[in-house]
Design brief:
Oligomer: single chain
Strand content: under 5%
Number of strands: 0
Radius of gyration: 16 Å
Order of helices and strands: HHHH
Number of domains: 1
Largest sheet: none
């Protein structure tokens, strides 16, 4: 239920973000915004648990999900702008952004697995 709750909160945060900052009216924009909301909810939950605001079975609320989505979007925008300023082509720009997201997800999964195995041993 924990992961499902984070996804639902992130989806709602994405819908709210889409209503607050509407762009072109296309389905891809709606889907991307809701996915960013879900990613923001996971980021906010991860940071909140690392800081100690949330327990192991608690997830971020709606405000935390929106803040996490804003942090994620800001990080990706800074990365893209930096690559453009360095003169990296748009093909490699997208490649680096994708690699950054993949690394972040991999590190999060690895850390979560390591914590679960350490708690099951103790």
């Amino acid at each position: 239920m924990h992961i499902l709750w984070i996804i639902i909160i992130g989806f709602v945060a994405g819908i709210i973000a889409r209503m607050l900052a509407p762009g072109p009216n296309n389905p891809a924009g709606f889907i991307l915004t809701t996915l960013l909301g879900i990613a923001g909810a996971f980021v906010a939950t991860f940071i909140g648990q690392a800081i100690g605001w949330y327990g192991r079975n608690e997830g971020a609320g709606l405000i935390g999900a929106v803040i996490g989505a804003i942090l994620g979007v800001t990080l990706l925008a800074v990365l893209q702008n930096g690559l453009v300023l360095l003169g990296v082509s748009s093909y490699w720009n997208q490649w680096f952004v994708g690699l950054t997201i993949l690394c972040a997800v991999s590190i999060t999964a690895w850390r979560d697995r390591r914590q679960r195995s350490a708690k099951s041993i103790a």
